[in-house]
Amino acid sequence: MRLKPEVRLVVFDVDGTLVDSRRSIQASSDAAFRHLGRTPPPYDEVRQTIGLSLAEGLSHLAPDLTATELEELLRFYRAYYSELHQDPDWRDPLYDGAAALLDGLKRDGWKIAMATGQSRRGVERALRVHAWADIFDSTHCADDGPGKPHPSMLLEAMRALGAAADRTIMIGDTAHDIRMARAAAVRSVGVTWGFHTRDEIAAAGADLICDDFAELGQIVSRYGMNSPVA
To answer: In 10 A of CB 64, how many CB atoms?
Structure first.
């Protein structure tokens, strides 16, 4: 697609950036490992894998699994996670300020894309649960091709929406998000309320790091004014 000089694109990770999914992810990991008769890995190990595709993340957590065991671990994790979210009393909440920021960016004319390690099924669930169908202009996930930190999802988002790299900003909570942005030559903003620490995000080379959504909104607005679009 031909680049459109007027397009300003902001790309969001989901888990740990917009949605507080720590409880669901840890519960599903614990259940899946117990299903295989294994001791569940602690949260500090699980959080390091968030942002990667599920298969890659689970492989990191248990590198000695056979292919058959890994497939069963994946199957049980997905089934358990899906069952959790069929319970009307179970919901992964948005972080405070996430909805307001998304709505504001939409009003201000930004194109908004999603780049997540979730499956396509997970993306569809998130769009439905959080009423995001009219917010996100394109969505890109682990089922679409190489996962983070490969730049594929970001490059596809830019291609789909006609955005240039110097008019695009990636926002995420993990080093995987930051490395993806650097590989795509896109400005990156790390957020500290998710799965990776400030030091881990900084070590990955984030251009900026912020601690709350008010600060994040100011950063994106400032970037928009200073980009070639303005």
So the answer is: 7
